[in-house]
Amino acid sequence: MASIPAAPRPPLPEGLGDMIRAARHRAGMSARALGRAVGRSHPWVTDLEDGLRPPSVTMADRVSRALRLDPWADAVLRSVAVDDAEMRAGRKV
Question: In this structure, are residues 80 and 12 in contact, taking their beta carbons and an 8 Å threshold?
Fold first, then answer.
């Protein structure tokens, strides 16, 4: 039986990446430093900031904590987070 492809995800909200990048700059962190802080590579951080990939729920939590996001920014980031199990299943998001 053929598998049914996952429905494409809507693009990330415009401005989300800029919000993350600005928070990272305010925290005095490079993309490499944020990547180390959350257990990812700096290209992963760049992809997040460029709106190319949503974070998993776990990664949204790690990014929020590392950048000490305010409650509004934290809520916006978490609103686009993808379930960890879905990410582990290898679905392209």
Answer: yes
Among 19, 37, 26, 10, CA closest to 93: 10
14 DSSP assignment: T
Contact call for residues 62 and 51 (beta carbons, < 8 A): no
Give the Cβ contact number of residue 40 at 10 Å.
Answer: 18
**pLDDT by residue (tens digit) across 14-30?**
889 999 999 999 999 99
**Displacement of CA 21 from its chain's centroid (Å):** 11
Residue 33, token pair as written in the block: 């430093």
**For the whole model, what pTM was predicted?**
0.81
Instruction: Report d(CA 18, CA 8) in Å as an integer.
Output: 23
Report the length, in residues, of the chain: 93
Classify 2 as helix, strand or coil: coil
Task: Count H helices and E strands in the chain, helices first.
Answer: 6, 0
